[in-house]
Amino acid sequence: MTKKEYIDKVATLLAQRNWQSAINLADAGITNFPDAGALYSLQGYAHLCTFSNQEAEKSYGLAIEKGATDFETSCNYGVALNRLKKYAPALDAFSKALAKRPRDMGARLGLISALRGVGSPVEAREELRRLVTEFPNQPEPLNAQGEFYQAESEYPRALVNFTQAISLKDDVALYYINRGEVRLRLSDVNGAEEDFQEAIKLEEGNPVAQFFLGYSLLLNRKDKEALSCFDLALENTPNYYRALVFRGLAKTKLGDYVGALEDCESALKVDAGRRYATIVKAIALAESGKVEEAKAVLENSPAKDEPECQSLLKVLAEKPVVWDMKLFEPLVYG
Fold it and tell me: Which of 14, 77, 299, 303 is most buried per CB count within 10 Å?
């Protein structure tokens, strides 16, 4: 195939939401045309749509290196960087996108998130105020305003904004995910479950919606249903750390200790330094009767000095092992 044929066919796969096939075909095209920035950019978009954010960052970085400096590439690169909390380079990416389309709402919303991330809330709020003024009764700025309130723990105000956004445009999965997360914060687990289910109807393969639905189901003691949600979240994003951790937790609750330990090991390969996979591994070992092994896991972990690890060490001898879902809230909302 020619370079143009590769580009056209990858674009067609993206339009069909066939993300993995698009990634694979882009790989083949890049092998034949290693300087084709457009192929890297299209591949980055597929990674972005499956929330493979590190892969998206890499693809977009290479796209720009190969000369793809169009608006979409710069803007989507900023989205990937924002998701990875790399706010300073995200700010640069959105600024470059806005140099091409100064009034684009999506790029300006990304810029607002980046400004907030780099510690410039005043500038972020001012830009959001301008956006709301320029685009009255539009759902996107209302959703962004809700995210501001959410970040500041003003959950009732955030709930109002997300609900307003949904009333204006009820087919955007992100709005339901945001409202569901706020409802969880407000202890409305049933309402949150409904929102995440609606998000999945709109974007069946959205791993974040699947994760949050699974978490809500765990809170409602629907462990088998939760396990299915984490399975689905991991189908598209096999290295999704918190889905691996919570699938391990669901398996522990269901007595599948071998499966739980396998998920914990997979999560530790993704990030050995974070405490949550270690904690679930210790819980699974302890509940399967291997208390000394559980203690050793905690004591030998890079996260052994974390308060949660120390607290768990003190209760490992108890039967049953006492732990609370609140232990994992920083992972859920972080």
Answer: 77
- pTM of the entire structure? 0.83
Torsion over CA: 273, 274, 277, 279 (sign):
positive
For residue 314, name the pLDDT band (cuts at 50, 70, 90): confident
The CATH number of whichever domain residue 180 belongs to comes to: 1.25.40.10
Integer CA distances (angstroms), 222 to 152, 168, 190, 325, in order: 31, 32, 12, 14
Percent of the chain with pLDDT over 70: 99
231 in any annotated domain: yes
Residue 91 lies in a domain: no
Among residues 183, 205, 238, the one where a domain terminates is 238
Domains contained in the chain, number: 2
CA 263 – CA 303 distance, rounded (Å): 18
Range of the domain at 173: 166-238
Read off the pLDDT of residues 52-101 as tens digits, 9 standing for 90 and up. Answer: 889 999 999 999 999 999 999 999 999 999 999 999 999 999 999 999 99
Long-range contacts, stretch 56-63, CB < 8 angstroms, 24+ apart:
56/80, 57/81, 57/84, 57/86, 62/37, 63/37, 63/38
